[in-house]
Write a structure and sequence with these properties.
Ferritin; mainly alpha; 13 helices; single chain
């Protein structure tokens, strides 16, 4: 499959999601990136994020945990788009680099729209299933997570883009695992729950029950995971190098912010 076509075209993305409803196709697609070895820093940060999520929302998957996860899952794609605009401001005279950054923005928009759909629909489901959703635990805390995750992804993208992609690979791997466990445990119950959601229709999906919806969401996450590694493979040798002057800039900015506050 051509990764650039899949992750930048909504129609081809949706076709891939439909193909992944076949468990054999899903397993083959997943296995193609299962053995990727992430670097130390993304491993450390990714492990910390997952640990924090488990402490606040529990280890077991649930509607409310998914709601929080999806609020946070949108963040890397927003940060990549912002970082790409920052780099375009600096390197706009380099046409080849500008074109590669343009591909990052296209993918980020597509993935962000997809994750936004997850947030809206799952929020509606969680409200229906639980009636009361606590503001602190399920709105304010995910927003705080998102704030720090945004700047973490943004800074990593500027310093060493590979690390930012790897961090997303780990987060999406966790999300895929959680959805897989949830579907396996509650398949029959999910099939008996009808789903009627106008935002989902506006997005362009026609899932009529919880099972089909979560099946596609699970596929979305594995595509986002694999696409993160495909983005690494598309980097030029120069883009794989650590940008030391960005490290200096970020340290200075952090120092200035610390002095102000």
């Amino acid at each position: 499959m051509n990764s650039q076509e899949n992750d930048e075209s909504p129609n081809k993305f949706e076709k891939l999601i439909k193909d992944l409803r076949d468990e054999k196709v899903l397993e083959e697609y997943k296995a193609s990136r299962d053995n990727y070895k992430t670097s130390f820093l993304p491993n450390l940060l990714g492990g910390f994020l997952v640990w924090c999520g488990n402490v606040v929302y529990g280890r077991e998957p649930s509607y409310l945990k998914f709601r929080a996860v999806e609020v946070i899952a949108r963040v890397p794609y927003q940060s990549w788009a912002s970082a790409a605009y920052t780099l375009l401001t600096i390197f706009y005279t380099d046409e080849a680099k500008a074109m590669r950054l343009g591909h990052v923005k296209k993918f980020s928009r597509l993935a962000n729209d997809n994750e936004t759909m997850h947030v809206v629909v799952i929020s509606s489901i969680a409200k229906h299933e639980h009636k009361h959703v606590g503001v602190l635990r399920h709105t304010i805390i995910p927003m705080l997570f998102s704030f720090f995750y945004f700047w973490m992804s943004y800074c990593l993208f500027l310093v060493k883009r590979e690390w930012s992609y790897e961090l997303n690979y780990l987060f999406e791997s966790h999300a895929f695992s959680q959805y897989s466990t949830f579907i396996k445990r509650h398949a029959e119950g999910l099939k008996n729950k009808p789903l009627e959601n106008e935002f989902l229709k506006q997005y362009g999906r026609t899932n009529t029950n919880y099972y089909d919806f979560f099946l596609d969401v699970r596929s979305d996450e594995i595509v986002h995971r694999n696409s993160s590694i495909e983005k690494i493979e598309q980097l030029s040798d120069e883009e794989k190098e650590m940008n030391l002057w960005f490290i200096v800039l970020i340290v200075v900015l952090v120092w200035v912010v610390a002095k102000i506050f």
